[in-house]
Write a structure and sequence with these properties.
- Helices cover 43% and strands 8% of the residues.
- With 306 residues, it is α/β, with parallel strands linked by helices.
- The chain has a single domain, classed as P-loop containing nucleotide triphosphate hydrolases (Rossmann fold).
- The strands form 2 sheets. The chain has a 4-stranded parallel β-sheet with strand order 4-3-5-6, sandwiched between helices.
- The structure holds adenosine-3'-5'-diphosphate.
- Adenosine-3'-5'-diphosphate (A3P) binds next to helix 2, helix 6 and helix 13.
Length: 306
């Protein structure tokens, strides 16, 4: 299939990947990745809030070391993608941010790989996994905007309608969206103490609660004293779209790892429901039908998406 942004996509074990920057890394993770018992994994469908989750988890886990959230915190100077690498994109090549031998424990590692494709060493570990799921209509619109920015000039344009059709057929990097979400949903039902399934929309409306739930899953709940000192609020504020998207590093910085990626491509609107400004009635109907059909009977409630 013609790819979304840079390359063509190919199917592997039921999911779609960009051959070079995606698939090679996935195979590296499956065959060579060495988990550590202290690892923490963050899993998402691209465009579902990965950048946000990276910032929140980094802040939670390092809150003793970095407890000044307004003047002296790494996230004021570094993109969340610099402090939390992607396993399949950053680890398999030794990069300035992610030499696997150098990253200190406990490592926070992000991935877009489907749950069932993760190596057994991860699936059978007791390491926590936090997954964020987002309304596929917003995911598609966010993806579209991202791919327009990332597309090299020499590639033929993909129309909005073509991209939508591909999305509906599940052809997106690391998609199908629904299959990827369901894998983590089922894991969260089976292993509730290890896999936390969150929705982007709930994180927007209840950021404090979601941040506390993440901290609990990680085995690092906020103490009463921390709560009284407003640490949870500080973390939520630091990681908010309003704050992060206005930081110089996220407005004008560039990735040290992938030279072509500018940090600002990960910050657009950070809102729920932008799909209403982009999708036609037919598109809405089609996507909703697919979502209902795919999630029917799984226990995954997505009323607020439809
Ligand atoms: P929009 O394009 O809808 O604005 P990812 O990080 O997985 O690539 O997802 C990117 C999406 O998350 C973009 O959505 C982006 O604006 C949004 N986002 C980035 N940082 C965020 C934050 N701190 N809070 C909420 N949303 C955020």
């Amino acid at each position: 299939y013609r790819g979304w942004s840079t390359l063509h996509l190919c199917q592997y074990q039921g999911f779609w990947f960009q051959p070079k920057i995606g698939l090679e890394g996935v195979m590296w993770v499956q065959q060579r990745f060495k988990p550590r018992p202290t690892d923490v994994y963050l899993a998402t469908n691209p465009k579902s809030g990965t950048t946000w989750l990276k910032a929140i988890v980094f802040s939670i886990m390092n809150r003793k070391r970095y407890n000044n959230f307004t003047t002296d915190h790494p996230l004021l100077k570094l993109s969340p993608h610099e402090v939390v690498p992607f396993m399949e994109l950053d680890l398999f090549r030794t990069t300035p941010i992610a030499d696997p031998e150098i990253l200190p424990s406990p490592r926070i590692l992000a991935t877009h790989i489907a749950y069932n494709m993760l190596p057994e060493s991860i699936q059978n570990s007791s390491c926590p996994i936090v997954y964020i799921c987002r309304n596929p209509k917003d995911v598609f619109v966010s993806f579209w905007q991202f791919s327009v920015k990332m597309r090299p000039k020499d590639l033929p344009e993909l129309s909005f309608e073509e991209a939508f059709d591909l999305f509906c057929h599940g052809v997106t990097p690391c998609g199908p969206f629904w299959d990827q979400a369901l894998g983590y949903w089922k894991a969260s039902v089976e292993f509730p103490n290890r896999v936390l399934f969150l929705k982007y929309e709930d994180m927007k409306t209840e950021p404090l609660l979601c941040t506390k739930r993440i901290a609990e899953l990680l085995g690092q709940p906020f103490s009463l004293q921390e709560e009284e000192n407003g640490i949870v609020q500080e973390i939520v504020k630091l990681c908010s779209f309003e704050n992060m998207s206005n930081l110089e590093v996220n407005r004008n910085g560039k990735s040290r790892v992938r030279a072509e990626v500018k940090n600002d491509v990960f910050f657009r609107q950070g809102k729920v429901g932008d799909w209403k400004n982009h999708l036609t009635d037919e598109m809405i109907e089609r996507l909703d039908q697919i979502t209902k059909h795919k999630f029917d009977g799984t226990g995954l409630i997505v009323d607020t998406w439809i």
